[in-house]
Amino acid sequence: MSWLQIKIAVSPEHAEPFEDLLLEAGCAAVTFQDAEDNPIFEPDLGTTPLWQNTVVTGLFSADYDLEATLSMIHARIPDLVPNGEPIPKATAEILEDKDWERAWMDMYHPMQFGKRLWVCPSWRDVPDPCAVNLMLDPGLAFGTGTHPTTALCLEWLDQVDFEGLQVIDYGCGSGILGIASLLLGAKHVMAVDIDPQALIATQDNLERNQLDPARLTTYLPEHLPSVNADILIANILAGPLIQLKPTFASLLNSGGKLLLSGLLDTQANEIRSAYQDTFNIEEIISKDNWIRMVATRR
Question: How does pLDDT run across 33-53, given as a tens digit for each residue?
């Protein structure tokens, strides 16, 4: 069926009241979008930042009386804006019927990283049955291979001889990097994330790839035991990476490899400065304004 969308452009401090207004009007879902395509690269931990010009969108089923709903919303808007501020206007549009599941599935296709490794959605045939094929469906946790930081990590992993190695995937998200390590020959992976949903997604993707569940264990950070890993992967953000440097140093064997990503080009010097007293920085590679850093524990 078709859907109706009602959009209101507001400042971030007014987004929540307008979300409540759209829900009160009967919408099925509310989303926040940036009106000017300005990215938020690194929000503070525990926050949900919004843009200076935020579009609040309510999705309504097609059987709603659009004229009456708009009238109700316009009547309430002045009550939500302080005196003297511009009064935003609600606009409506029809969202035509579409096979959204099929459109979503068509977005994802097998991707090659390096010489051996492919990441493939489960609903598509693998291009090379003889390759190392990681079966992964987009889900609730970050990590499908489409983001440059994940691609940079996968390309490095493809070059590594993992035979017999212990790996830590810190900030595992979907588990893509840890599972890739297992498929490439790692002995065992410890997958760590602050989000319990990520740990569930990682276990689901481990099962999807028909790997021995004993080869990967998941942990919240506070439950991670003290280990001596051969490789530690952390594709997260610059702030946490700097804070976690002592933790990473304690978890890696002398001579162990550290792979960091989730970083912008402009953050390279800051990360280098934070790590160079304990690690030998071997490379910093850039892709689409994002970087990976590879270092060795002294």
Answer: 876 554 444 444 444 444 567
Tokens of 158: 């493809």
pTM here? 0.70
Which residue, chain included where needed, has tokens 């933790």? 247
Q: What is the DSSP letter of 277?
A: T
- CA 43 to chain CA centroid, Å, is 13
Instruction: Please tell me the distance from the alpha carbon of residue 234 to that of residue 142, in angstroms, as a whole number.
Output: 13
- The tokens 């970083």 sit on which residue? 263
Query: What pLDDT band is residue 100 in, cutting at 50, 70 and 90?
Result: low
The DSSP 8-state label assigned to residue 40 in this structure reads: -
- In order of their start, the domains of the chain are 3-38+46-97 (3.30.70.120), 147-297 (3.40.50.150)
pLDDT digits (tens, 9 = 90+) for 238-286: 899 999 999 999 999 999 999 999 888 999 999 999 999 999 999 999 9
- Residues 259, 232 contacting (CB under 8 angstroms): yes
